[in-house]
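Annex B, item 7. Sequence and structure tokens for protein A, then protein B.
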Amino acid sequence: GRVTVARISTGDELAPPGQADAPDNIPDSVSFGIAAMLAEAGAVLTQRSIGGDDLAALTHTAGKALAAADLVVVTGGASVGDRDFARPMFAPHGLELLWEKIAIKPGKPVWLGQAKGKLILGLPGNPSSPLVTARLFLTPILARLMGQDAALNWRTLTLAAPLPATGGRETFTRAVIGPDGLTPITNQDSSAQSPLHAATHLIRCPAGQGALDKGDRVSALDF
């Protein structure tokens, strides 16, 4: 059968799209992007939950998710703080961390664990970060669980515009493809949603890479 997935979004600030009418509310837009990736991969979304910052309630939600799916995908609550419950909510269920925090931008807080024989992928909360990390990690995990080739299809493409230098972390720059090649999107902020919607590719930029010019070749992944 197909791989089953449970989704948990964490944070008191989250509200369903169209209902984020309080000053501190943020629409839970990430769930829809993740759901589209799951559908494209052929996975079945068996459960979707929005959990507030209440550890007891989240622990109950985590247990239900582990019972309902082969893979649990959690967004938010991945930073270090008193109200970041993404990992603690799975601790009573026997969470074993496989890895946490990767020197990439965006998406440094991404983590992978397992509990009760199920995999748990923890993604950051800001819109760009979870969708970039889902493309990099969720899609290969789904492919592997389905017995398919899990390798990402990186291609060498031409820049249609300059690409700024990379900082200290390997960076995945959102870009738009056109007749002349890839144009990096100006706004790479992890909270920006419009540029995320426009992006067609991720450009892989090694840490410490110098600025590149139009016409230079880069490694890129369909996004």
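Protein B:
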Amino acid sequence: MAAPNIHTATMTLRVLLADDHRLLRDALRLMLEQEGDIEVVGHASDGNEVLRLARQTQPDIVCMDIGMPGMNGIEATEQLLAIRPDVKVIGLSAYADQRFILDMLKAGAAGYVTKAAAGDELLRAIRAVSCQRSYLCSGAAAAVAVAMRSKDGQGRVPDGQ
């Protein structure tokens, strides 16, 4: 009897989708399930559900919307990483707002992708964070660069600059 293909079995990435918009969750799930190495293990509509499902499904990666009802994605990221520090979180937002990006990264997210850039960009982010790399879509990277260049470090360019 041939030995099982261990390499293939260990390459499947277990992804949990968290977004309060069902239509977006369903579209992302359909897109991700087209990939042979990604398994969507669940989807949540709020931060509390993310924590519950993460315990049940043991995902490798959580794609986390920031603006969810109840516990938002930033709080959920902090709490999730406190109990599962091995999970990689990718922030997902409609906005490339510096404050949200920086707050998400401070909470421990390994990546950030705007919903407008989702699709192939989200796939690149998933693959990057699965290899222990950080990933920012171009809009998020630009916002972080402005924040880093600003004198107050909060993403605001001081008056007169």
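Comment on protein B: The chain has seven helices and six strands.
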